[in-house]
Write a structure and sequence with these properties.
Elements: H1 2-19, H2 48-65, E1 76-77, E2 81-82, H3 84-96, H4 104-110, E3 112-114, E4 124-127, E5 136-142, E6 145-148, E7 157-160, H5 164-169, E8 170-175
Helix pairs in contact: 2-3
Length: about 180
């Protein structure tokens, strides 16, 4: 989405410059907004940052609310159980209304790549658990912990990324933009 908006902005700017090339350069001027448009700080709508923080908190709350739900291959609801991508998909859908792709690999391609050092609660962590890249996904909680639907016979649980098993299989991290 960002790339599309960037291309559109560049295209519009190029059109504007070529259409007005013979005019004097534009010099921006500060203009006071009309009195009825001025607002005090306490009247301003919530900032983007506070909405993002609220969204992350909703996502983490939803993720932790589902601890203990049984693993079910192809599962995508608390009633039927979850596989890893069904769990992540359900959490982001229920908390933020986002519709993520169905497989861990497809989710990895749809989200923004970040470095491991940039991980923040609510980011996604991916692992190679089936001898193929991005075959498993979980939700990062912070302090090296993540929550996921592990495998057949398991239940949604929290694990440490520093454990030998997960450390050796770490594939990368992604951030879902909303």
């Amino acid at each position: 989405m960002r790339k599309i908006l960037s291309v559109l902005l560049i295209a519009c700017a190029g059109f504007f410059v070529s259409a007005h090339a013979d005019e004097a350069p534009y010099a921006p001027q500060l203009v006071e907004p009309p009195l009825q448009l001025r607002m005090s700080l306490d009247e301003l709508p919530p900032s983007m940052m506070s909405r993002a923080v609220d969204g992350v908190q909703q996502t983490l709350d939803q993720a932790l609310e589902l601890l203990g739900i049984r693993y079910q291959r192809g599962g995508n609801s608390p009633e039927t159980g979850f596989d890893c991508s069904g769990y992540v998909r359900h959490v982001f859908g229920a908390s933020l209304g986002l519709s993520l792709p169905r497989s861990a690999h497809a989710i990895s391609q749809a989200a923004e790549r970040i470095d491991k050092q940039e991980l923040q609660p609510g980011d996604l962590v991916f692992f190679n658990t089936m001898r193929r890249a991005f075959s498993h996904v979980g939700i990062y909680l912070g302090d090296g912990q993540f929550v996921h639907a592990p495998r057949a016979g398991g239940r949604v649980r929290i694990e440490n990324m520093g454990d030998r098993y997960w450390k050796r299989r770490f594939d990368g991290a992604r951030r879902v933009l909303f």
